[in-house]
Design a protein that fits this description.
heterodimer; A: mainly alpha; 7 helices; B: alpha+beta; six-stranded antiparallel beta barrel; six-stranded antiparallel β-barrel; 12 strands; globular; transmembrane (chain A); membrane (chain A); transmembrane helix (chain A)
Chain lengths: 168, 263
Amino acid sequence: MNRNYRNSLSIIGTALFLIFLASFQVSFINSSFLNLNLFLILILYLVLTRNDSKALIFAWLGGILTGLNYFSSFGTNSLVLLILTAILIILYKIVFLTLKTESILLISTIGVMLYRFLNWLLTNGEFGLYFSGREILTELISTILILLIIFKITTLRVTTRRVKTQNA
Amino acid sequence: MTKHNLTVFFILLLLSLVIIFFGQNQIILLFKHYLSEILRPFEIVFSKASNWLFFWQSVVFNIKNIKESNTRLISENLDLYNKLAKLSQLEEENFLLRKKLNLSQKAINTRLASVIGRDFQNNRSFLIDKGTNDGIATGMVVISEGETLIGRIADASYGISKVQTMLDTQSRISAITATSKISGLVRGLGSDVIFDLIVKDKKPEIGELVISSGTDGIWPRGFIIGKIKEVKSQDNQVFNTADIELLSKLQDFDSVFVILSSQ
């Protein structure tokens, strides 16, 4: 396949994926009892797999798309996600050197707490609103669980692929 | 961070700051408008799917509650029938008196809109599927079917609008209690609302309805906000405050009414 053709296809695919993810977050997840931030999970995944520049771009774009329905001024959400990603990238490079269950657990916890803290800091909110109640706990647990499942699936795929190539 | 990542970060940071500080610029408004239009069809599909799914989920998980509330509602209904009979007599009387005094009836022109998107983890804002092409403008008041106040239009695009609910910390509504006529200010706390600035020697009754008084010139008069849940009076405070219980959760609304004009 032509390289330009593939590039444009991947750009269209990424744009569609982001639109899909943002609409799903705003119209489905936020209306439900599920306390999940899909963009935060995506950013954490990209940071953990060391796709730093992708994580920064996706954070900004995700913030812009979900920021259309954000109670604070347009652009604040992307600023929050962008700063959060930068902090996570630096933190991951300094503190966590290998991708282990503990690092997934810790970086997810830091990510969720930091996202709420930055939101509280940059928007006109009450501290208790972001750090009390069962919402923060469920968000924390579901974020960690989803990330662990994603990494479990990806490592399982890699292992089966390796076994297949060895057998061949 | 590598040099490349740092450059990406600073470019995006600059872009975010430009968007925040020049939010009212025509180019940014146009960008926002097109983005909203692109997301709109997806949001409509997902909101319909979520409404359907969560309706059935709540039906399945709340059978016991539904049965209990049904019994309670039957007795409430009987009580309301009694009140309705008295009310229709009063309405008739009111109509005759208005006719005699040449007073016009209160008429409001509304537009029905569906909720297609919500804010993350709180109900401080939501999106509706009507915009400037339907006559919606920033500042218009949004109510529910039972004429309960919900919020105001914070941002209106061509086919989509953002509603800032009264739970938002920037929301201030001058209000009055329905029976004891105690006036105060209803403030949004982010996840709840509070009835503030109540004169020290006055205490509203628990369960009493709080309605908008219209004295602020922003919110129309006579719309229900909620009912008094708990009155708080402290000696070191200048005013009394009261917690307000909203009559229905803002999360439960699938459709709302936007007041286009009222006479």
